[in-house]
Amino acid sequence: MNEKQFTKFGARVAIYARVSKTNGGQSTDMQLHEMKPYVMRRGWRVVKDYVDHISSKKAHRPQLQAMMWAAKRHEFDIVVCWKYDRIARDTIQLLTIVDELKRLGINFVSQTEQIDTTTPGGYLTVTVLAAVAKQERDNISRRIRAGIAHARAKGTKSGKPIGRPPGNKVNAADVRRLYRKVKSCRKVAEQLGIGTMTVQRLK
Length: 203
Fold this sequence. Notes:
Elements: H1 3-7, E1 12-19, H2 29-41, E2 45-53, H3 62-72, E3 78-81, H4 84-87, H5 91-103, E4 107-110, E5 115-116, H6 120-158, H7 172-182, H8 185-192, H9 196-202
Parallel strand pairs: 1-2, 1-3, 3-4
Antiparallel strand pairs: 4-5
Helix pairs in contact: 5-6, 7-8, 8-9
């Protein structure tokens, strides 16, 4: 699907809106009020609204997931959001979503920002964002490696081991006794500082 196809009258649009919570006066009404006339002005038509009332930090956002499943069924041609931080918690997640939509032949538009993959300029913006996201990933990796190196050096000086104890150094009787009490592998793992797989093996 090329740019000309997407900009023709009647292209199908899925609108995504989100606020972190419903209390405190937060509402998606303003986002929807802004986006629907915008879609009409471009000669497109809204086929469905997907609205989440949940923090972007949550891994599972029901309506975002439902929209991505609908994208796989090719129920719309374009996804429109008010700002990209409504749909993604950071640049890396945004690029993941945009790449998945592109793979499915679906364009992405952020109304209030210069992110519009129905236009050549919009694709240029996405390319710049991809470069920023790569830099973010590289920075995160460097910080993780530096943190691990620092922890290892500190552990070596103090004589303390780094990380969780290996399963063969865990007292199986302690694991079984605690599991009988709390009935949760996760809680046992947290209290003993071991992995849940180790708890499942020893309980």
